[in-house]
Amino acid sequence: MTDFTMNVGDNGVAIITWDVADKSMNVLRQESFGELEALIDEVLGNGDIKGAVITSGKDTFAGGMDLNTLGTIRESAGDEPAKALFDFTMMGHTFLRKIERAGMDPQTNKGGKPIAAALPGTALGIGLELPLATHRIFAADNPKAKIGLPEIMVGIFPGMGGTTRFVRKMGFMAASQYLLQGKMVDPKKAKAAGIIDEVVADPVAAATEWVLGASDADLVKPWDAKGYKMPGGDPYHPQGFMTYVGASAMVNANTWGVYPAAKALLSACYEGALVPFDTALKIEARWFTNVLMNPSSSAMIQSLFINKEALEKGANRPDVPDQTVKKVGVLGAGMMGAGIALVSAQAGMEVVLIDTNQEAADRGKAYTETHLDKGMKRGKVTAEKKEAMLGRITATTDLNTLSDVDLIIEAVFEDVGVKAEMTKKVEAIIPEGAIFASNTSTLPITGLAEASVRKDQFIGIHFFSPVEKMALVEIIKGQETGPRAVAKALDYVRQIKKTPIVVNDERFFYANRCIIPYINEGVMMAGEGVGLPLLDHAAQLLGFPVGPIQLVDETSMDLGAKIAKATMEAMGDAYPKSIADDVTFWMVDEGRLGRKAKAGFFDYDEKGKRLGYWEGFNEKFAKLEDQPELIEVQHRLIFSQVLEAVRALEAGVLEDIREGDVGAILGWGFMPWSGGPFSWLDIVGAPWAAERCDELTAKFGERFSCPPLLREMAEKGQTFYGRFGPQAEKAA
What we know:
The protein is an alpha/beta fold. It has an eight-stranded mixed sheet with strand order 12-11-10-13-14-15-16-17, sandwiched between helices. Strand 16, helix 19 (483-495) and strand 17 (499-504) form a beta-alpha-beta unit. The longest helix has 21 residues, at 81-101.
């Protein structure tokens, strides 16, 4: 079975169709290069063929490179993985350059055959780099299609000519938003930006007509023509010089220097702009190889592409029939309930939004209306779509309207008694086969299920706030939760287009189990006298989106106090009291609750904008004259989370380390460049991590003690993915 086929019409135009049979969207595989090149060679060498149109047999064009290909090349290259990756990349450049030059005479730029691309829909990554090498790009008028080069989002950059061609096509300033930010746009915006050439109703027909009428001049790319000048100026041009200086500052401001792909991309653009086009392609290939050889790149690809995709496709779904949700009942119309109602209606489900009074229920529905109104202002939502979505949400106080739902999501006040009362009331009304899910963030699901008469149909579905923006959903299995409940939760999360992780029941589950120690360690260091800016900046230099001090203010201090008190009550004498508790309770007493109170570790203006760190904090908790080394602060912040992830695996809370890595990145922004806690441990090595645990334990206490599993792996020289990854499971 081939990925590319070709049919030559009576008009002499070859239609090359890309259709990967076992994929919902085309991806370019290593063996595909040879197939396509053989067809292009036939086009160029056959005098009866006038030109070619490359299109897709699907309603999209292509989703990019099969990233597993890069891993396979590296792993099978023996002692020379860098050479193998560079050679593969240059093979791609050479082939795409063959399409671009299309048999032209190198001296006169004449005699080539026109090759066009016809995009029926989305074209990303190599799915856009291939069309960029053709002589004209036609795209269907499909507003849902996405055009772009999003490689930077998974830790690499466009390495098959996209970087070099974008810069030469539109100049670095205009190209930077697509290259450095991974911006994707619809076809009309892509045409306006100069990425593609035409937006038409029938791209294959339009491309065919163009091929039949194309002249020699139509085939010559600007960078191959005499007198070409770089749009916006080259690096030594006054305007170009300032652009690259500004871009360097922007990259460092946004990445804090921890994402190698962004710096490599900038280098490829700058150095490539100084030399002829073919040399620029070689520079791009060298920097691309450099990034692929960086362990950060492979870790990001593994977690943010391969693992994430596997989880979204149901890697750990029980083998039970389809559990697609048609009608969902949401109990509680507060911020969480309103957000759940929004994403459910967005996915096409009927929603019953329940609250104790009609005003609150209506307010919850109004959250969706406000969201849609913002979308209408941006041109993303039509009046018809708004009306349809709002029509799917019934806001009411009447529990009897839940009589035909197939899923309940309870999002009421975080109190065992309140939740138990609602469970009993609702289970008396809902169908016998309906699944009951609690959106709790900390309360054990097994305990909450005690109020249920259908414990096998009771499960936890933990959303992160704000629901419509956060990509992760944590599904929690109680001790008696059955497989159909798990499947229902997973199918629901798939419907709302989020990424699920499935964990077993224990206080704080997985995400909060790791987030809370991170926050506590930061607050503890603040109480010890470590400077507040040092704490936040140390975290940002590690790649965290916000530091622990800012995170406390965003989530609110009284929430931290409430969790601490509940944990104290649950653990009794076993609770590890620390100065973090003193800080938390004192801040609450002072009314410094965070952003919502416009007073916390930061001062705020009337609109809630941060003005700077509150100087009054160090009047109570004196700042150390000798501040700790940056690396020590960073290790305390990292290990406070990583060790909890390992303990969660030991305890069986995590059943799959892929969920631990993906959940950490999407749930609370754990160092995305590292691929997650388990990937990070594999990068630094278990022996080094165990040794550092011993040093931290000796200096700061037992919370840093090395988990037995990590100690064992250090002694055996094992890695987490080597021992627990999917390949290890297959081998076992």
